[in-house]
Amino acid sequence: DAKTTQPPSMDCAEGRAANLPCNHSTISGNEYVYWYRQIHSQGPQYIIHGLKNNETNEMASLIITEDRKSSTLILPHATLRDTAVYYCIVASGGSYIPTFGRGTSLIVHP
Amino acid sequence: DTGVSQDPRHKITKRGQNVTFRCDPISEHNRLYWYRQTLGQGPEFLTYFQNEAQLEKSRLLSDRFSAERPKGSFSTLEIQRTEQGDSAMYLCASSQYRGAETQYFGPGTRLLVL
Questions:
Q1: Residue A22 — φ and ψ, nearest 5°?
Q2: Cα separations in angstroms, A15 against A77, A79, A82
Q3: What is the pLDDT of residues A6-62, one digit of tens each?
């Protein structure tokens, strides 16, 4: 069973921020939160990861709550090319056996 | 850096035949992973290697599945006596373990068992 819970689908208008939530209430202290996305028929693509602090890179921002039981991936200005399935996973670095779940299907519309 | 490559990209086989898939990771990456993905589901972890050592293989789906990484570079995934239920996308990923993992995925091999 997946260690994370995500809404099955979301939609967003092009140019707006897309905020994708993830619950990981059973996360342990040494587990990171990772986000990947998968565009139809391609392999998943890494987006961002974090442990405790909020993180930002050229693709997205990751906001992790203080109790680490949930997080939000933010795509600040969504484009049509951001339409994909987004996966939130938790895993530790030493024994990395990720469980992907079904993810959130994000549709960005014009 | 040419990314992770997988060969073949597509494979059609008849039930009962053996198939082998190859994965070439990013050259400096020491970890290599195999996943299976069926329609509408996320990738399902199968096994992984650190260099040539297979560190986890309990998630391989049956004893018909086996994987090797003989020299710590490329890897092969073999399915013996294929069944129609083996039809899926088989994904490979690699990473350079540094405490946290950033996996880079290949394009996958799509298997159809008739």
A1: -150, 130
A2: 5, 6, 11
A3: 999 999 999 999 999 999 998 888 889 999 999 988 999 999 999 998 999 999 999
Residues of chain B positioned with their CB less than 8 A from the CB of A85: 42
Q: Cα separation of B114 and B13, whole Å? A: 6
B-chain CB neighbours of A42 within 8 Å are: 107-108
Residue B1 pLDDT greater than 70, yes or no: no
Here the tokens at position B45 are 């972890």
Q: Which two tokens stand for residue A24?
A: 């990981």
Cβ burial B47-79 (10 Å sphere, 16+ → b, else e): bbbbeeebebeeebeeeebebebeeeebbebeb
Closest-CA distance, B70 to chain A, in angstroms, reads: 21
DSSP state of A64: E
Alpha-carbon gap, residue A86 to A92, rounded angstroms: 20
